[in-house]
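Hi there. Long-time user, first ticket. I'm pasting a complex I've been working with (about 437 residues overall). I'd like to know whether the download I got is complete or cut off, because the file seemed smaller than I expected. Thanks.
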Amino acid sequence: MSTTTIPTGVKWWNGGRSPFNASYGKVMMWYFLMSDAFTFGAFLISYGTIRFSQNVWTDANKVFDSAPFIHGGAPLFFVSIMTFILIASSVTMVLAVHEGHKMNRKGVEKFMIMTIIGGLLFLGCQAWEWTHLLTGEHFALAANGGLEGLNTSVIHNPWGQALSSTELSSALAQTSPEVLKNMILSHDHSAVLTGLSADQLLEKVNEAVAAGHLHVTHPGPIAFGGYFFGITGFHGFHVFSGVIINLIMYIKTKLGHFDQRGHYEMIEKAGLYWHFVDLVWVFVFLCFYLI
Amino acid sequence: MSEQAVASPEISYVNHDTGGTKRLWQVFWILSFVTIVELIMGFGLAKHWYGDPIKNHGFILFIKGAICILSLAKAYYIVGVFMHLGSELRNFRMTIVVTLVLFVWFIIAFLSDGNSWKNMRNTRGHSMPDETEQVAPAAKAADTKE
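Hi, the file is complete. Here it is re-exported in full:
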């Protein structure tokens, strides 16, 4: 990539020059990101350890199969949008760095704004996904032998193995009519259920299960929610702080601070952080959604 | 090409390109293409294209491994081109890349630890034969309440 060739015979370690040919700030940003990579790595590997220690793990394709206006049946769709938003914002970021090298203030401003918008879009998607998991109810076998509606959170996980047909019929027999009503309403919001007897409710639930509208399962490993919300939350916090940093860089560009300084290296350092956020997402996407 | 700015007097030469953006867009298309391939392979896992998960366990593991390798390729392009690590001095590059090699040990050690934990639990500390594959879902449920 470099247009200038490395000067030969330079004594890098004789003092007076940076032995890495990079400023202190940039070198330290790299080492901070390296330590951050170990933090994220520790989280993801810990998730892997617990996942490897379980006989049954939650199938991500059942949990993350919805998007705004799509109620289930679309695994990987929403998360692929989130992934492309981050890749696109990474490109606009590197283009801002490029314009900075050319000392083109207008160009830097344009691409920084695009990067900030990309970051905000990603955060919006993540907020939707969290809300969807925390407010959506799914039905799993309860301790009393009946079924109960659970959200997906750090204390509940309704995404275990599917019940066999005998397990399902015995569980339904012990489920209260209130829960049966909620089960029908969870997939058919406009169902009219007043005046239906318990047997009629049961029949409707059985139909919905047979048609594949309702997934009735054993409870799944609770660690799933803790790891999912913990790691995507930590990543989301990085995206949030990246947006704030980019916003500050945009304002400083607009005020002409970097033109006065004679270089746009701050954009480059903010860019390193932003690309790192994209890099981490590659692995979060891999561990939670793909495999 | 306008004049190139140097951030501090300690820097001996400018190591960034102020020419075209062709390489950057090329990497964007590579990342997008690899992501689409990953999505197709992952979608196959969701839709059981690779057959019965227990019988074809080995093949599914192979698909998952391939997806992991594609993700590493994406990481290589992001770090090497977008973060310009590829145009830094070799000494500097090595202080970062060599340190990250620790992850190799880290992953192998902890995943095998998790796996052995599972085997110990299933076999009551190796005093019982391993019957993981034969256990009915109802009996397994007790294990999942971790």
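A couple of notes from our side: The radius of gyration of chain B is 24 Å. Chain B has five helices and no strands.
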